[in-house]
Design a protein that fits this description.
By secondary structure, the protein is an alpha+beta fold. The protein has three helices and nine strands, in the order αβββαββββββα. Strands 1, 2, 3, 4, 5, 6, 7, 8 and 9 form a nine-stranded antiparallel β-sheet that branches. It binds calcium ion (3 copies). One calcium ion binds near residues 42 and 85.
Length: about 210
């Protein structure tokens, strides 16, 4: 029973030390989207730059890519009629720089993308580059929007650069999420070791009585 408690305490400590934390950027910069049948712009972007101009330079703000809204359907459904649709769609390979005001460590980036199987020239991208690391994206089964998580790298800094590599004429993105594996603080280690030490002492005391 005491060993079970000890094991449970250890598992709890390890679980808390590897918990994943979501990190919201303070701003992002990129070129605005393009016009096709509709306008696939980042019309709610809060920074400087023309939000209704194709490929205008947008800097210092946030918009469609970090508003928490993930497009639930293909571009031809969610973008019609022309308005502030949830996607940003490009006919170039967009490079987006995400900025944090404080230094962050990031181990995973999730991209929420459309896969229209080529309808209107819109397909899943061939891959994404995150902080210089290329991640190839296999063609998703079916034709629904999907999420692709790039992980297995570690970025520490203020500005994380990502690029989407198109496979077709267009690439459509509605949200980007960031996760960090929290590194335990020295105090956490101290508490963990202290807690295990206390349990061991209890065990020893019980043995001697
Ligand atoms: Ca969004
Ligand atoms: Ca949009
Ligand atoms: Ca597909």
């Amino acid at each position: 029973m005491r060993m079970t408690l000890l094991t449970a305490a250890l598992v709890a400590c390890l679980a808390s030390s590897t918990a994943s934390a979501a990190l919201m950027p303070d701003s992002y910069s990129m070129l605005n989207g393009n016009t096709g049948s509709y306008n696939y712009w980042d019309q709610t972007y809060t920074g400087s730059g023309c939000v209704t101009c194709n490929n205008a330079s947008l800097t210092g703000g946030k918009g469609d890519l970090t508003d928490g809204i993930i497009a639930p359907d293909n571009w031809f459904v969610t973008e019609a009629p022309a308005g502030n649709g949830p996607y940003v769609g490009w006919t170039l390979d967009p490079t987006i720089t995400f900025h944090w005001n404080t230094t962050v460590t990031i181990n995973a980036v999730t991209f929420y993308l459309d896969d229209a199987n080529g309808a209107g020239g819109v397909s899943a991208p061939a891959g994404v580059i995150v902080d210089g690391n290329l991640f190839t994206i296999a063609e998703p089964a079916g034709s629904a929007p999907f999420a692709f998580a790039a992980n297995g790298f570690s970025f520490t800094g203020n500005d994380l650069v990502v690029t989407l590599n198109r496979k077709n004429q267009w690439v459509f993105l509605s949200e980007v999420g960031f996760n960090a594996t929290a590194v335990p603080e020295p105090e956490t280690y101290a508490l963990m070791v202290g807690g295990l030490g206390a349990l061991a002492m209890i065990r020893r005391r019980r043995k001697t009585t």
